[in-house]
Amino acid sequence: MNQEPITWRNIKQTWVVFALLVPTVLGVAAFSYIPAIEAIRHAFYKWDGQYVEEFTGLDNLRQILGRLDIWVPLLVGMVSSGLSALVGGTRSRRLLRIVGLLSLAWTAAVIIKDARPMAGDGAFRTAMRPVFYLLGGTIVAWVVAARRPAGGWGALARFLTFFLPITAGMTYVISVTKSGDQLLWMSFRLIFVLLVANLFTMWPSIFTAVCIHRLKSDRAQYIYRVLFVVPMIIPAMVGLLIWKFFYDPSVGVLNKILISSGLDHVLIWLDTWVLHLGVFTDPFRPAWLGDPSLIIPALIFWGFPWVGVVGVLIYLAGLQNIGGDVYEAAEIDGITSWGKFWRIELPLIMTQVRLNLILMVIGTFQAYGFQLILLGPSGGPENKGLTPGLYMFFQAFTETNYGYACALGLILFFIILVLTIVNQKYVRVQK
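The chain above was modelled as a monomer; its predicted structure follows.
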């Protein structure tokens, strides 16, 4: 069905509809687009949040990133790669890929130039080893991409031709030269750990949705859906305070459960003979939110048993679209319940899984509320629980460095945009 183009004649004929849209457009502009544009503008200012403004150019970004001579071509390469996945024209896509490859080649040249005078330093060679491995992997990916067709392994190789050199440049700046804001890089390491953990903690929501969907009684399904909606009425602050009490070393429920079940002796033995952390001792009172070695496990365990309300409802919506004839055919073929899950239900809800992955990535990067309540604005001892969102909050409302916080938000925006584009381009769902 061809869509009719918008012309002034069509607008005159349907001016009432456009007039009714004006208040909504103005509201979205006033409360969404204008604040976002102002945040981008203030990223280039030294601003205390009120009236003191001083244009500093790229100083905020230089303080965050460190080596702009490496980061600028890296960002150009990432943006070019993302745009090449979106544009439709072959010539435009080819031009963007050439720009991206030239930018990444420039990054590799800068790294090699910096590394040449330090070639005799053993510690430097050890630190540079991952960088050279990534650059070598890039060459292999280029060879595979040139010989393979566009789909399958060829698509993966083309993706790696951009991803590996970008990772090499980031590794060089962050781990080798140690330039830029080290607290931000530490927060990104925590984000990586949380994202990997979320790939495992998302499965309880999927299994719960499948169990509810397989209930024979429609009334029972309705009751369980209502029970999963009810917790959304409870303020999130209440749940966070409950979890903070749960982790309390003196009167917390977690330590009492471990002591009553005898697991405290197991943890003490593991710490003494295997882990050597010095956090599990007798008497057993580990400070889950006060010990740097336990903060990350505590953040991962937060939300146990990891049955997210929104995730369950999203998966249920996808499962309800599966026709009954599909299950009848599976029964005839003698497929077991476990086989139905892997061969029917999971493949047919991959669209919902991908949606949840996008929401999970964006939410993990932007989250700061539960870390703020549990650990405070600095992310706990040694900043072990600091995330990019919490660090942005810390710079804005604790250090009153709003311009620097806006620059952090600008960097997070580009990272989330690139990850979303990669997900849309390379994480495809077969219909």
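The first helix runs from residue 8 to 13.
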